[in-house]
Design goal:
The chain has three helices and two strands. The protein has 86 residues and is mostly helical.
């Protein structure tokens, strides 16, 4: 669970910026992707994940979080919902 949260935080660093063309493909030509009015917009210089791979990774990490919350909900329903306060 904590690793999935850390993975989502790290994913925000390596995702293609929102001002770049974020068409869902799996290639990564950042020079062609980050053009505004024919000029390349400055980026931090770190390697970015293509939007397609970032989406696949984000869905995988979100499914890990969903599984954790479903298991917590099942434990709550099975063991604690039947308790009555005094």
């Amino acid at each position: 669970y904590k690793r999935a949260l850390l993975g989502l935080v790290l994913l925000t660093i390596f995702e293609t910026p929102t001002w770049c063309d974020s068409a869902l493909d799996f290639g990564n030509q950042l020079d062609e992707r980050c053009l505004i009015e024919g000029r390349v917009i400055m980026t931090s210089g770190i390697p970015y994940l293509p939007p397609g791979w970032a989406l696949v990774l984000e869905v995988f990490l979100m499914l890990i979080l969903l599984r954790k919350f479903i298991l917590e909900w099942q434990v709550q329903v099975r063991y604690f919902d039947s308790l009555v306060p005094r």
